[in-house]
Write a structure and sequence with these properties.
With about 325 residues, the chain is mostly helical. The chain has 12 helices and no strands. The termini are far apart.
């Protein structure tokens, strides 16, 4: 009875790294359902409520000042080194490179550009929405505050909402958005939520953001992730267009390559079977052959080859004959 060999964990890992023969059909593209539209509306309302609470200098601004005067970086100074490294998980450059490398492998393995295009669209929305809000409201950070108890709005700042927090929500949340299975989606959603929560609290600890900045950054990133299915038709059209251009370029490149031309066949004349005819074709007998009738090897006299520099020796006798006595 023949049994299949059992695959070890390392074998399964290497099998996972191989490229799939065709694009998987089980990956579902999220759509804008009624439930998601309600969540988008509620999140947008919460976004506006936070902005309004800061503009009118409500209890949220007073809480910002209380946390700032508490100075967490002095209360827990022993973890300052760790927070300095952890906050990098919210910076645009390093996180985008890491996530793009992973999604690039996903795109290559599954024969689709959707992971990379979804990342690009989400980062574009992040830059437009969060960047416009930052420079539009111009709030100063805790280290540059001028009036105690003020909301520090419209004074040339760029920290409201928190870009680190919104970037952490979008960059790590896109992994959960593009997950292939429900289990992976749940795990990645939990990881992205904890990571973005930690990044936001890290900026408050370091004193670079108000607490309300972090709240608005979380909501801004969540709003982008909830609205991303609206852009799935655009992503699909862009992917089809890119593949169409690739196929067109390949066909044009194959048509411009030079076609190898085969050499015409050469007729080969067979040699004549008659040896006398061959001898007649030769211009002259080889110079190294002895003239005259064929004699035994022991009776041949040495003949100097034509063109040789050795002088002839007429005094030499054939082998086997007695040599004459010298006077």
């Amino acid at each position: 009875m023949r049994t299949e060999p059992k695959l070890t964990r390392l074998d399964r890992v290497f099998a996972r790294l191989d490229r799939e023969p065709e694009r998987p059909a089980h990956i579902d593209v999220p759509k804008m359902s009624r439930h998601r539209i309600v969540l988008v509306a509620a999140t947008a309302a919460f976004y506006g409520a936070i902005v309004w609470a800061v503009v009118i200098t409500s209890w949220l601004v007073r809480l910002d000042w209380q946390v700032m005067f508490f100075r967490p970086y002095q209360q827990w100074s022993e973890i300052h080194w760790f927070v300095d490294y952890y906050v990098v998980l919210g910076q645009r450059g390093p996180t985008a490179v890491m996530v793009a490398a992973w999604l690039g492998w996903r795109s290559w393995r599954q024969h689709t550009l959707r992971p990379l295009l979804a990342l690009g669209v989400s980062l574009m929305l992040l830059n437009i929405t969060v960047g416009a809000a930052k420079y539009g409201m111009g709030r100063l950070g805790p280290h540059y505050a001028t009036v105690i108890g003020s909301n520090e709005m419209w004074r040339g700042g760029d920290i409201f909402p928190s870009g680190h927090t919104a970037n952490a929500v979008v960059t790590w949340g896109i992994l959960a958005y593009l997950a292939s299975t429900a289990r992976a989606q749940r795990w990645l959603s939990a990881v992205s939520a904890v990571t973005s929560l930690g990044v936001g609290l890290a900026t408050v600890y370091l004193g670079t953001h108000w607490l309300s900045d972090v709240l608005l950054g979380w909501v801004a990133g969540l709003l982008i992730m909830l609205a991303l299915p609206w852009f799935e038709p655009l992503i699909a059209r862009a992917e089809a267009r890119i593949f169409e251009l690739r196929d067109r370029w390949r066909s044009r490149r194959s048509s411009t390559l030079p076609v190898p031309v085969s050499a015409p066949p050469v007729a080969v004349t067979p040699l004549p079977a008659d040896r006398d005819d061959v001898a007649a074709r030769s211009p002259r007998a080889p110079a190294y052959l002895a003239p005259g009738p064929h004699t035994a090897r022991s009776e041949r006299t040495p003949v100097t080859p034509a063109g040789s520099r050795r002088p002839p020796h007429p005094e030499r006798l054939p082998r086997g004959s007695a040599s004459s006595a010298h006077p």
